[in-house]
Design a protein that fits this description.
By secondary structure, the chain is of the alpha+beta class. The chain folds into two domains: about 100 residues; about 100 residues, Alpha-Beta Plaits. It is about 50% helix and about 20% strand. The strands form three sheets. Strands 2-3-1-4 form a four-stranded antiparallel beta sheet, with helices on one face. A two-stranded antiparallel sheet has the order 5-8. Helix 2 runs antiparallel to helix 3 and helix 2 runs parallel beside helix 4. The two termini are about 45 Å apart. It comes from Methanoculleus receptaculi. It is found in: Cell membrane.
Length: about 200
């Protein structure tokens, strides 16, 4: 037994150390799995297989401990708890990384001049279309932005057109586009090459 080899009481090892190990192993493999699914959806073909290998390797280790200690119900709770926690952590990490592009669609019946001017001055590419809604004429504003800039765009919407309806969608691929420069105060730049989301 591993516990005996480490000089740990086998009963203590089985009742406490193994569940803790299973819990954290599940956190790791599910977090990696959540990230892998996100990367697959964004076409990142190089990273996804590496994460998949790490995910299944850790899972095999965790499940082997379950089968070696079937009589300890704490292992089952640790397994389920690690799975739930791993999902949460994986989504949180992905949100912090904010990789890829997103389409922001804004529909407003109010004058959107200030909002449009702000977005363009900040370096965002903006397309404006006249539309007709249930309550009359409206403007539809489209902009493809980096996901890390979404908070800035949402803040601008709330500031200049707080009653506007807007939606945000993931963009898998995009060709051409204007995006704010990475360094504040510098000139926005156009991207003329084919962009893959997540790159």
């Amino acid at each position: 037994m591993i516990g005996s080899a480490l000089g740990i009481d086998p009963e203590l090892f089985s009742l406490f150390i193994v569940p803790i190990f299973i819990f954290f192993a599940r956190i790791c493999d599910v977090t990696i799995g959540t990230m892998r699914i996100i990367f697959v959806s964004r076409g990142m073909k190089t990273v996804a297989p590496v994460l998949g290998f790490a995910e299944i390797f850790i899972w095999i280790i965790a499940i082997s401990q379950i089968f070696q200690n079937l009589t300890n119900p704490i292992n089952y709770l640790a397994y389920a708890g690690g799975f739930a926690t791993g999902n949460y952590i994986g989504m949180h990490i992905e949100e912090r990384l904010a990789m890829g592009l997103a389409l922001v669609r804004i529909i407003t019946q109010r004058d959107a001049t200030n909002l449009i001017d702000y977005l363009r001055a900040a370096g965002y590419g903006v397309t404006v279309i006249d539309a007709e809604g249930r309550l009359g004429p409206s403007k539809v504003i489209f902009s493809v932005v980096r996901r890390r800039n979404l908070r800035d765009v949402e803040n601008a919407i709330h500031q200049f057109n707080p009653r506007a309806f807007y939606s945000i969608e993931d963009v898998r691929r995009a060709a051409e586009g204007t995006f704010p420069a990475s360094v504040p105060g510098t000139t926005p730049f156009r991207v003329g090459r084919f962009i893959r989301k997540g790159k």
